[in-house]
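Re-running the complex after MR caught last week's input typo. The corrected sequence lines follow. Everything else is unchanged.
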Amino acid sequence: MQKPRNDIPTPSVRRLSLYLRELESLQNEEYDTIASGQLAEILGLTAAQVRKDLTYLGQFGRTGVGYEIPTLVKRLRKTLGADKTSKTLIVGVGNIGRAIATYSGFIDKQFELVALFDSDPKKIGKKIGRKADAISILPLKRLKPTIQKHKIRMAILTVPANDAQDVADRLIKAGIRGILNFAPIHIEAPDNVKIRSLDVATELEQLNFMTASR
Amino acid sequence: MQKPRNDIPTPSVRRLSLYLRELESLQNEEYDTIASGQLAEILGLTAAQVRKDLTYLGQFGRTGVGYEIPTLVKRLRKTLGADKTSKTLIVGVGNIGRAIATYSGFIDKQFELVALFDSDPKKIGKKIGRKADAISILPLKRLKPTIQKHKIRMAILTVPANDAQDVADRLIKAGIRGILNFAPIHIEAPDNVKIRSLDVATELEQLNFMTASR
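Corrected-run output:
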């Protein structure tokens, strides 16, 4: 099996993800082919940008009418590593953690939620999710054995800001290589660990700034 | 009152938001001053980058020991427009919408959640949030009058992907200028409307790619 490439620039990876999402939805609507210009128009990009990004997928037999959507979807999945299931866990089962755990997109997609953790003794043992797929909340002392047993590489961090760095340190020590952080703080991590932060307050601040009347 | 500036490049605005978050937390821990090098180190940036970004705040009387944190916080808030309360609303009261509505950071910060909307008749009239601050869920036909009455400029969109574009169109027609979109699709909008999209699946896909073993 072809390994995912790591040498694609981050902005291109981000756009490849968007192409995949868009093409999957076009595929569901039973479209067959698409021209780079059409995909560009849907996503507000230039056709040249789309064509350049798609060169990261390797050589294509392009027809006169554009790219075959099923081929493109398959190549994108392979390149992004989205053709394999990846295991992940959530630490912090508050409102956001619970929402992500029960997010319907989760189980259908390429990410398998293996475990939930919380530091609140009252939450330990409770189950989250639909009956057959429900997952029990574990105490933090079970982090390391769970990560090692299931070889989990990615974690979703939805703990309060004050606890986020401590928990991140524990995750990294236990072998986690990528953290999706929802706490409104900057997480320190070694170079071989990737952190992506999503913070609703910061995002709203950006939007507020960008839409302020001059 | 000084209006927020619109001429700061987006990456700098994003970093100014991060500086504000970090400095507010240092202020809570009762730090007084900070050097650009220290702030840079905390956030994994270069001191030159931090100094350049801070020039957007105007002239500073710098002391030998660095910037005074309270002054910096005040200037950042003013520049970002974070010194005024901004009104916002949420459309789609599913798991994510509910989590954001009850997000404790919400009411303490500069954003006031004015209204919640959903298309499900069973949800209309239900209340979300703590007793005194609880907000009723309204039907979508109340979108336009509510936006116009309260002069709301920003909306949080947490509806299913299939409904996201339609609802966004209605929001924009009613006067919304900025949308924070949680649906995993690209939202089309005129140039004078800003869209920011947060999608957990896409973020995980990036992380998964970036941390794939070579």
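None of the earlier attempt is carried over here. Chain B has a mean pLDDT of 87. The longest helix of chain B spans residues 10-28.
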